[in-house]
Amino acid sequence: MITLTTYKWVPDFAAPLMRAFRVRWALEEAGIPYTVRHVALGPDQRSPEHLARQPFGQAPAIEHNGLALHESGAIALYIAERSEALLPADPMARARAIAWVFSALNTIENSVQELGSIIFFHKDAAWAKERRPQVEEFLRLRLGQLATALGDKDYLEGRFTVGDLMMSDVLRIIDSTDIVDDFANLKAYKLRCESRPAFQRAMTAQMEGFAKAA
Ligand SMILES: N[C@@H](CCC(=O)N[C@@H](CS)C(=O)NCC(=O)O)C(=O)O
């Protein structure tokens, strides 16, 4: 059985966004049962037990059959390799789905996270007010390129893959803005991903998990 390590508590704004959600969603799409371990923010994060699971004292991490694995992208791919619901059997289609996971994490999440950091932690700082227009402009460039690549397809490679799971989850980080709404096909794509039953089950589990662990 896979054990997912997540936090006991995070601030309200972070609860639906926490990266453990990607893991829950992948597990739900794959139909793989899992158990959850909650660690507390603070000293627990730096305990030898937790650092053995996640070398940077972060979450999520998983353990499975003696393997400890950190990084939400690596974990999502580990799960995806076990289910055609997330990765197609054809080698070329698999490679392209994996490329979208890297695009989500290496190309889109950087820009999204920079805006997220301003919104969540530094909104009223003078430097943030000055920097925000540049951050948004660059993010719009990237989202425009993503929208072009998506075109009129339902998902980035036509059918849903782990690449869509990661991409749509990254886009949620800026849900408190209307930036994605400016790209009609991206907005519809994100809603399509979020209306998947596995997404809904994972979100319910994540929110109930915080409530129970509190
Ligand atoms: N690149 C890591 C990032 C993990 C991460 O930033 N996790 C956040 C929660 S969503 C965290 O643990 N923050 C507390 C910290 O960095 O100390 C991943 O994708 O798994």
If you had to describe this structure to a student in words, what would you say it looks like?
The protein is 57% helix and 9% strand. It is an alpha+beta fold. The protein has two domains: 2-85 and 198-213, Glutaredoxin; 91-196, Glutathione S-transferase Yfyf (Class Pi), Chain A, domain 2 (Up-down Bundle). It has a four-stranded mixed sheet. Helix 1 packs across helix 8 and helix 4 runs parallel beside helix 6. The mean pLDDT is 97. Residues 18-19, 57-60, 71-72 line the site of glutathione (GSH).
Q: Structural class given helices, strands, pairing?
A: alpha+beta
- What is the annotated CATH architecture of the largest domain? Up-down Bundle
Count of helical segments? 8
Unique ligands: glutathione
Question: Taking Cα atoms only, what radius of gyration do you get, to the nearest Å?
Answer: 17 Å
Mean pLDDT: 97
By oligomeric state, this entry counts as single chain
- Count of folded domains: 2
Number of strand segments? 4
Low-confidence stretches: none
| N-to-C SSE string, H for helix and E for strand | EHEHEEHHHHHH
CATH topology value of the largest domain: Glutathione S-transferase Yfyf (Class Pi), Chain A, domain 2
Share of residues in strands: 5-15%
DSSP helix fraction: 55-70%
Please outline the major beta sheet: 4 strands, mixed
User: What top-tier CATH class of the largest domain fits best?
Assistant: Mainly Alpha
* N-end to C-end Cα span: 24 Å
Strand order of the largest sheet: 2-1-3-4
Based on Cα principal axes, name the global outline.
globular
